Amino acid sequence: MKRFTISASVTFMLAGSSTAFAGPHCHVPMADWQPREALQAKVSALGWSVQRIKTDDGCYKVYALDSNGQRIKAKFDPATLEQLKVERDRH
Fold first, then answer.
1. What domains does the chain contain, in order, with CATH numbers?
2. What whole-number distance in Å separates Cα of residue 12 and Cα of residue 26?
3. Residues near 73 by Cβ (< 8 Å), separated by ≥ 6?
4. Which tens digit of pLDDT belongs to each residue from 20-76?
5. Which of 22, 40, 34 is nearest to 85 (CA)?
6. 70/89 Cα distance (integer angstroms)
7. DSSP 3-52
8. In whole angstroms, what is the distance from residue 65 CA to residue 68 CA?
9. How far apart are CA 88 and CA 66, in angstroms?
10. Does the pLDDT value for residue 84 go beyond 50?
11. Can you give the pLDDT at residue 46?
12. Could you give phi then psi for residue 57, rounded to 5 degrees?
């Protein structure tokens, strides 16, 4: 019984840690989403050159280059277009 408890604990810890790295999730009905064109305009105003916009975990995910040519991956709330997460390529 003790072995099962330890095994179950480890399983739940690993499952929880994998979702911690997944990033934000958006739970917005499609009827409330802003159009991609609005997001494109917002990102362009930041000086980014958009390579691709897709949906991921219910959020908009933008692949772009900044004004220095550095790669950017960012998540945006589809209703408010609030920037939720940004990752920059370090190369």
1. 23-88 (3.10.450.40)
2. 23
3. 61, 62, 63, 86, 87
4. 435 678 999 999 999 999 999 999 999 999 999 999 999 999 999 999 999 999 999
5. 22
6. 6
7. HHHHHHHHHHHHHHHHHHTS-------GGGPPPHHHHHHHHHHTT-EEEE
8. 8
9. 9
10. yes
11. 93
12. 55, 35
